[in-house]
Design brief:
A two-stranded antiparallel ribbon has the order 1-2. It is flat, with a radius of gyration of 24 Å. The chain has 361 residues and is mainly α. It is built from 22 helices and two strands. It starts with a strand and ends with a helix.
Length: 361
């Protein structure tokens, strides 16, 4: 098997974006040799690893993000997740296990593409739900009957109308249980087009962005509140103080309506004259801003403990410089010889990992 040979990038390693520009070809053996060299450098050179995932793979990853989310996603956040996922150690503490276990049956870029698609594409069941009122009034059944592939139509009916468990669905369809995940995605993808084109009034009730990351204000308040306090009123007072500090007025209003006034999403959407799906998105961004405030107002006890748990050495040093040594950004950037752009990206990734450790459920 021959693969197109590409011109090398400035650092001597070919990027996925060069694929369409070459005229020579690699043999399978040459491709494997190139990929082994790439993986070895990624595993042993942290700065190159970051550059490889964030810059050299950008054309490939941009296309994947666009295909899955259109233009409705934070590219940097998704790629940071991919970077951390690839670097994550196995049970023995061996970092970059996902790359070290690559079997070279395909190219490294194809392998990364497969991982990225699986990681970026949230399982359909997590972003999709059929409200009971649509089943009661028969609209859901009408939607399902318009799905043009029989097995997808049957899957939706068994799952959401008959409410069968996975074993029963697999048995009725005559397929293995482990095939249901891919069938679910195919079925819901087809249903998505039907709802969007023929039942658009119900779209926001069925496909909700919020489920991509289920978070609650309670997670943020655990850090805001006094660790010795178990009284709801005391927690609420602390949350209120942070809401007052939030610079975005719409974020403040959405969190106040949802969690302090206990309104549901439909009521909040009506108050703000927007869609329900938009309220879900605003809520996620608002909680993220609330977490940032908790960090920057130094209200996390023993923050150095959490920083030490960050896997990436460079991320850990950046966080220590900001929160412990309290150095300015130019000093930190100069120490590691980072451009302003690279420093901002690394700081964003470092803060994301730190918040995932502090605010995990």
């Amino acid at each position: 098997m021959l693969l197109e040979k590409n011109r090398k990038s400035d650092d001597g390693v070919m990027g996925v974006g060069d694929i369409s520009r070459g005229t020579k070809f690699f043999s399978k053996g040459e491709t494997n040799q190139r990929d082994k060299a790439l993986i070895d450098r990624i595993c042993n050179d942290e700065q190159f690893a970051y550059h490889f995932i964030h810059e050299m793979c950008r054309p490939l990853l941009s296309k994947i993000v666009w295909t899955i989310y259109n233009n409705d996603a934070d590219y940097d956040e998704l790629v940071n997740n991919l970077y951390l996922h690839l670097k994550k150690p196995n049970a023995a503490g061996d970092y970059w296990h996902a790359l070290k276990s690559f079997d070279y049956r395909t190219s490294l870029f194809d392998y990364i593409k497969t991982i990225a698609v699986r990681l970026f594409y949230t399982p359909s069941e997590n972003v999709f739900s059929i409200p009971e009122y649509l089943i009661e009034n028969g609209v859901a059944q009408e939607m399902f009957l318009r799905v043009d592939v029989a097995i997808c139509r049957k899957y939706l009916w068994y799952r959401y109308i008959d409410k069968l468990d996975s074993d029963s669905i697999a048995n009725n369809l005559g397929i293995e249980k482990d095939k249901l995940t891919s069938l679910s995605r195919r079925s819901i993808k087809r249903l998505n087009r039907i709802v969007k084109n023929e039942f658009s009034d119900y779209y926001d009730d069925i496909f909700r962005v919020e489920s991509r990351e289920k978070v609650g204000l309670e997670v943020a308040t655990k850090i805001v509140a006094d660790k010795n306090s178990h009284q709801k009123s005391e927690v609420r007072i602390d949350v209120l103080s942070y809401l007052d500090r939030m610079p975005n007025e719409k974020y403040r209003m959405v969190l106040s309506l949802l969690f302090l006034e206990d309104k549901d999403y439909e009521e909040v959407a009506e108050v703000l004259n927007t869609s329900v799906s938009n309220i879900y998105n605003i809520k996620l961004r608002a909680i993220e801003q609330l977490r940032d405030l908790v960090l920057y107002f130094k209200d996390v006890d023993n923050i150095d403990y959490y920083i030490k748990k960050v896997n990436c050495d460079r991320f850990r040093e950046i966080l220590l410089s900001i929160f412990i040594r309290k150095e300015d950004y130019d000093t930190v950037r100069s120490r590691y010889a980072l451009t302003e752009t690279d420093f901002k990206k690394m700081k964003k990734s470092a803060l994301k990992e730190l918040k995932s450790l502090i605010f995990k459920k």
